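Suppose you are handed a protein chain with no further information: no name, no annotation, nothing but its sequence. What can you learn? This example shows the usual starting point.
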Amino acid sequence: MGKGGYPVQGMLVALLGGFRFLHAGHVVRMSPRAEHLFAFVALHSQPVARLLVAGPLWSEVSERRAYATLRSSLSRLDPVGHRALSVDPATMRLADEVAVDLQDAQPLAHRLLAPAATPI
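A reasonable first move is to predict its three-dimensional structure. Written in structure tokens, the prediction is:
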């Protein structure tokens, strides 16, 4: 483990305590649009339809413009960002090698909040 308990190898989307995207233990700088895109996709454990990504992220513009903004955001990602997303014509998801701190923390939170078993 590297600084802050984050993996030294691989990629991590950190949502707890503010957005960070790490690659090999180093913070990767992203545009605000890219951060929103990664955070939205990271909140879903399954592939997300592009419509369900573009619409909520850019709800203040027309559907056509939201799709154009999504395409633009994807095209402007650096090589690490491109590798971190698995995108096809209909859906997108984080690549298999990308960890998400929130997904890792949820099972622990459930265990901590579960009523303690009564001793026999």
